[in-house]
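Its record is retained below.
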Amino acid sequence: MGLRSIDNEEEILAQIAGGCQHAFARLFHGYVNQAGRIVYTITGSREQTEEILQDLFVKLWKDREKLISVKQFNAYFFILLRNHTLNYLTNVVAERKKQQQYTLHALREEAGAHPDNRLDMLDKAIDALPMQQKTVFLLRAQGYRNPEIAHRMNLSTDSVKKYNQLAIRFISRYVKETILLSLLAFRLFK
């Protein structure tokens, strides 16, 4: 997957090395679409593609004096493009990891800092359950087994299992959403 050279490339590179912006515009228009297709294939993002290309062409302009010694610009540019794209993606991945680690750290801090809040949150989640799920969940918490709960509530054992699963899923989602909302509020009003 190479890049096609443009006409009069050596002459254009010499003019760019001398500071000619018109020649740089010709080089830019000769390569931007080719390079854009390659980068977009890798990133899948128009915004990231535009950012990578912009950074790359700014770098070319800043280092324009070096262009006079380049023999095969299309190969040189392709290597720059590849390396710049990989560096950009590496930085994006590293930044996402940092954000995930920060979020996990903040969640742990939030959960660990206020143990009473966790119990309040759990109580609110249990109170928000539908009556059957709430009863099954509380009986399970007291140590009753599914057959005993089924007998007490006049339900099948499978229904008790299902109500308990639904209750646990709801409580888990409720707690996660409450923590995330409190983190968001904390970050907004910080």
About this structure: The chain has a mean pLDDT of 84. The two ends are 49 Å apart (CA to CA). The helical segments are 9-17, 21-43, 46-62, 73-113, 115-127, 131-141, 146-153, 157-188.
